[in-house]
Amino acid sequence: AGITAERRHMMSAAEEVRDINVIHSRLVPRKDVLPAGFARGFTTVFETAFHPAHEAGGDFVNCFPIDADRLLVVAGDVSGHDLKAGFISSYFQGMCRGMIAMNASVAQVREYFNHFLHSEWNRHRRHHDGSDNILTSLSVCFLLFDFSRMSLACLNNGFPVPTLCNGEGEAISVGDGGPPLGWFGNPETQHTDIAMPASGSVVLFSDGLLDQAQPTGDSPYALSDRLFTGPKTLARVLLRNQRDDVLAVRFSWHRDAAAPAPRLLYAGTYPGDATDHVDDYQAQWNSAILLGVPDIDEDMRRDILLCCREAILNAMLHGSARRADRKCRLTICLVNRSLSIRVDDEGIGYDTRRTQPTPQPGEHISMGLRIIQCYATRVTTARSGATLTMDFTIASPIKQ
User: Fold this and answer.
1) Contact present, 380 and 361 (Cβ < 8 Å)
2) Crossing angle of helices 367-375/298-314, nearest 10°?
3) How far, in Å, are 57, 206, 239 from residue 243 at the CA level?
4) pTM of the model
5) Three-state SS for 94?
6) Confidence check: pLDDT of 220 > 50
7) Angle separating helix axes 278-292 and 220-229, nearest 10 degrees
8) Mean pLDDT of 117-138
9) How far apart are CA 341 and CA 271, in angstroms?
10) Element at 18 (helix H, strand E)
């Protein structure tokens, strides 16, 4: 009888934990969360992927349409993976929703919850000798999109820095880090306000997704994209050996008559003297392309990788002049059925339009650029050639 009662108790506790997980999952917004008429003149898409590692997790995301032109996105990660983390997560979301409804500012929400964690919740976990037990903290990122002013405001405490990809294929970090809430009485973090492009997407993800991507060398952007667009059953394969909650969020927008916003697959920054590591970089590009376009033609994939290799070597050798203090950047994104790859360097540039010129004494004629123009659907340059964009039309359909 005692064993039976114990088993019933354990089953009841397990069911309650599952109920908590269901409630937590319901708080995660879906694609249809934006109201009709929001951001008139723009097409907007809100996407999430949430995969808790245990029955109750601490990662969360929520969004609050403030009015017809403003959207507040809040993503966070509570320390720990137990019921306590799930409780704190749900408590913060409810408190945040209530304060926003009462017209509180983002700074006021942050200040209130940091006070709760630091001065109330964690105060009871301190030992009598003044030393600290394991305290509860919250890494949280607030993003306010304002389509009336075309501005993006960010306030981030401890969450991985979000990335904006604009219509030119440029990947831009939004804001900075700072300590999580609950650590200090006054969490000093700079407020960031940047201009929103006419077409763009912002991607943010929790530490759990970064931890999942790093051991295999996968791009967290490509992994996020596959979680957004692939079938739900694919997550079990992509997130095998998962040990932490995985959360990814993407908000995209574009003017109604314009091309869709880019889907960022890869963003890498390299020193100008890193030519010896190009094989390692190529493996990363290959992984990102396979994740983002899983049924791409194999010959096309090889051609694209060759062009990426030639472009980044040109940027390192001739743009950044092999200097470690000059950076080169490569981004890969999808727009419609086109794979767009952008390479930037910190050099002075050169004329890339002349693929068959009569060379002048001492002038560099890039054979790599000739190769690129043979394979790419379209090649464009900016900043006197210091920015090179290669577009490749995907022959096979993109699996969704």
Assistant:
1) no
2) 150
3) 11, 13, 9
4) 0.85
5) helix
6) yes
7) 10
8) 70
9) 18
10) helix 2-26
